[in-house]
Design goal:
By secondary structure, this protein is mainly alpha-helical. The chain has one domain. It has a 3-stranded mixed β-sheet. It is globular. It starts with a helix and ends with a helix.
């Protein structure tokens, strides 16, 4: 009887519901892979009292330590909801951009000229520091603040698309098969690269996660 009920329930479940659930997961998955990776590393590093710089040239366990001298800015009890999410003084993580920028340019995830032009057209031109992050990399800590939120949005969007991760290769993004990856807004909507997102999708080991961090990431994404 149980098997008959389960079969009936499965047959009644509309495909649209499954697709909608998949799309919802996909939309957050890429951001979680990029920003979530940083948060997971940050929480671990705070506990250990260490700081690391991302680098694709060395294993994550051997990445060079940096001294940021910056601590997260705790919101005050009287802070507004916006201030709690985006403190006026920003929120610093003890991790650096490292060579993420140059690597994104190298693999074609970001077209430098097109990227810069997009911000100029929006009347929010990139600062010299942001241009350097893209072209040369940076050992400065990642700081989330209102003035750079737009820059970080597209920067880490590219990271999330390009970074190798099982969640991208075996998760909801593959519900239509490898040939269907470009059908999603998160992939087909990326227009700031030198080539389509499907050509560099999950292709570069930009950020490495431990088994525990990967498990936590997948739990949140699902």
């Amino acid at each position: 009887m149980t098997n008959d009920w389960e079969q009936e329930k499965s047959e009644k479940g509309p495909a649209s519901r499954r697709v909608l659930r998949g799309l919802t997961v996909v939309l957050v998955a890429l951001i979680l892979i990029a920003l979530g990776s940083l948060v997971f590393l940050w929480s671990q590093l705070r506990a250990e009292g260490a700081a690391v710089a991302f680098s694709t040239s060395q294993p994550s366990a051997e990445q060079a330590e940096i001294s940021t001298g910056a601590a997260p800015v705790p919101p005050t009890e009287a802070a507004s909801p916006l201030e709690r999410i985006q403190p006026a003084d920003g929120y610093a993580l003890p991790v650096a951009f490292g060579d993420l920028g140059p690597r994104l340019l190298e693999i074609g995830a970001i077209d430098y000229e097109r990227f810069v032009q997009r911000y100029e057209q929006a009347n929010r031109p990139l600062s010299e520091e942001q241009k350097a992050i893209l072209q040369k990399g940076s050992n400065k800590p990642v700081v989330f603040e209102r003035d750079n939120a737009y820059f970080l949005l597209n920067f880490f969007w590219a990271v999330g698309l390009a970074n190798q991760n099982p969640l991208l290769e075996q998760g909801p993004m593959m519900q239509f098969g490898p040939e269907g990856v470009g059908r999603f807004a998160s992939t087909g909507g990326w227009t700031l690269g030198t080539r389509p997102a499907t050509e560099f999708y999950s292709s570069a080991p930009l950020i490495s996660l431990t088994a525990e961090q990967q498990a936590r990431l997948e739990e949140v994404a699902q």
